[in-house]
Every structure is written in structure tokens, then in C-alpha cells.
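Fold it.
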Amino acid sequence: MSNTKQLNRSLGLRLVVVVVIGNIIGSGVYKKVAPMAAELHSPGWVLVCWVLGGIITLFGALSNAEIAGLLADTGGEYAYFKRIYNRFFAFIYGWSLFTVIQTAAISSLAYVFAQSLHSLAAIPTLLPSWADVNVAGVFYPFADLSMKLTAILLIVALTWINTKGMKAGAGLSTAILLLVFAGIFLIIFFGASSSQADLSRSFDLRTTNNTPVTFSAVFAAMLSAFWAYQGWAAIGFVGGEIKDAKRNIPRGITIGVLTVILIYLLVNATYLSLLPVEALEDVYAAGNKIAAIEAVKSFWETGGFFISVLILITTLGCTNATILASCRTYFAMAREGLFFQKAAALNKAEVPGNSLVFQCVWACVLVLSGTFDQLTDMIIFAVFIYYGATTLGVFILRKKMPDAPRPYKVWGYPVVPAIMVLFCAALFCNTIFVRPREAGIGMILMLTGIPMYWWFLKNNVRKEEPVQEVSRV
């Protein structure tokens, strides 16, 4: 069944910026400063990594914006890759979304939601005697089981709601984002102005262990920063609903990413001024604490409740948006015979219910498989392979389509996209070295797409059909 109905172009530049920022700001702004401090042992270097991560993210976003401006109506990277490379590579990307990138993002966000809920009301410990049960010394499914079950319940509940045809309007997205902004700026204002704050400490480049900071440590810390910056590419999925998309997508990406960089620098400088690096290392070692909560508690005794509610709102919104949006790619793949056939069906509410169920089951398995930081490192390792591929597409499309109108051309070409491609390659290699377990698991899950591609071709032979783009707003 084909569906060529065109979407209404109702989103202007303001709402494009809302979508970009809303898909970026999630759990990372509250939690990732702790693993970065544990890796670098220096508050100043933590801020340096936030800046470097922001610059690289901006380079990638600007490169992506050229392709989005050129192919604005095609629906994101899955469709871009079919034009830039071939159907096989596009499938591997879509399969990676399912096995690693998007499902692990859902799992990670839900896990932070559970941690925030635990800080509000203690969740009873379940099966503590089973905590050391493991699979190959890698997976500990029963460690922090009560936290993981809470995350699983959230994923199941939000999946069920979305099967009923849940709508997320642009007005609601704006309201949630304004609420999150207000909460973050309250932390910055009252935290930085409190008597406990020492802003000079935030910029101290000395390490607490008196050892120099290595390139590998910087790259490892940037994995955490990149998780916090992750999500800007989501705007490609709503290209068909944006007014003057070929102009507003590049402008919206630039404004949105620059805004987030500024917010992250301010709020992380505040965390570092309130908590010494040693305290942040303890937060990371504890495993079930959130840096933002501990920082707010340092100047506001009952502030843990406020920040926990703020994190609940933020992660709930991000989890729901990711669940809602991600399943559309697998639905489109199934319509082309490149995913499980049941995922191609729409339910009575005219949403891809089976695709939502497939996604839900695998996301729940990933919750049981590892911790928050393990999952996010695995995501960043995987996603930067495709960021590099998209950026390389700038060079390929300029050769393939030299005369095609480009409303936006990446600033600093060819230097800026070249730096992004080289950085993605360096991050890929360094992650294998410093995070071999996460890189290995991520690579294995992605490479399962090779036999699956041929299996789908053999068993789900279908004519490729046009699929209606679905809004992520």
C-alpha cells in the first residue's frame, strides 16, 4: 500500500529551532559531567571538552545542513544514504538505529528517568543476591534491577500510549522546552551566585592526580559530551513539514546548536564551581547518583526534589519523542522489504504499532544489558560512523550533483567537513582503544545487519514504495 500524501508545511524557523534544541537537551546536561571529571581529573579540562565537543558538533551539523538543504524532503539520513551511497548502506544505517543507536538512546533516557524517580522516592532493592550474576563477565542483568525494571516499565508504558495514536504538537514541545530552560537557568543563577560556588575552580586546568591529561582521555571524555549534544540531526525527519525548508533547516540547526553550546558551558561551569572534581568522581563511582542533583543539594538542601522533577520532565519528554520518531524508520524499511514484514503494518490508530513493539522489546533488553554510561558510549561510537558518512556525502554530492541548487553551502568548505570526517575516524579508532567492550558490542550489533540484509531480500521481496514522512514534532 503506497501513500504519497504530502505533509503540511507548517513549521517556521522558530519551531525548527525548538525541534533542534528539544531533541538535544536530555539527560546528558544533568549527568555527563561526572564521568568526564572521572576521566580527566580536572575541572578546566572538563569545560575544554565541552567546548571541543560543541565545535565538532557544529561542524557536523553545518555539513549535515548542506545535505538537508539539498534533499530537504527525503526524510533524514536513511533516505540521504540511498542517494549518496546505495540501498545496502542505507539499510545498515537503519539496522544500526534499531540495534544500537535509537533503541539504546531510549534505554539510556529511561534509565536516567528511573534514577531521578529513585532520588524522589526510594525504589525498593530487588534480588540483591543476584547482582553479581553475569553473562561472560560483561552483562550484569540483575545489577540495580529495581532501577532497570522502572526504566522498562516506562518504555512499555510510553510505547503503549504511542500505539494509541499519541500526538505531540509543536505548542506542547515549545512549552516543555521553556519549562526545561527555566529550570536550567534557575540552577545557573542560584548556583553560581551561592556562597558555596567558586567559579575560579571551574577553569582550573590542574589535575587532582598530578598527571598530565592525555589525548585518549580527552577523546574518552568527549564521548560523554557528544551524548549530551546528540539529537540535532532529528530535524531531517520533519523536512517535509518545514516552510522554506532549504533555508530554515540550515539556519535552525546553526541557531539551535550554538544555543545549546552556550547553555551547556554555563550549567557545567556552575556544577564544577559547586562540586570539586573529587566529589564528581565519587558521584560517578556510586553509579546510581546524578551530578546535577548533588550540585543543587550543595546550595539548596531541599533542592534535590526540584532538580529531580526537572530531570523527570526532561527525560520523559525525550524518551517519548525518541520512541515516537525512531519506529518510523523501521516502518519505512519494512515497507521496502528491508525489515520484519509485520513492522510495515499500521494499526487501527494509523500508527506503526508493530514497529513500536519491536523497538520496545529490544530497548528493554538493552536496559538489562548495561549501565547508562556503557549504553551511551556504545551509541556515540556507532552514531559517529554515520555522522562521518553523512559529512563525506558533502564531497560526494558536490561531485555527483555539481549543478544542483544548494540554498546553503557548508561554511569553510572543504576544511570544515574534512575536519569532521577526520575527527569521526579518530573517534572511531580511539573508542576501540579506550572503550573496547562498548565498541565491540556496538560493532557486532551493527554487523549483524549484513546477513540480515540478504535474509530480508530473500524473504521479504517487495517493490520499493514511497512512504509518507512522519513528523517528529
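The radius of gyration is 21 Å.
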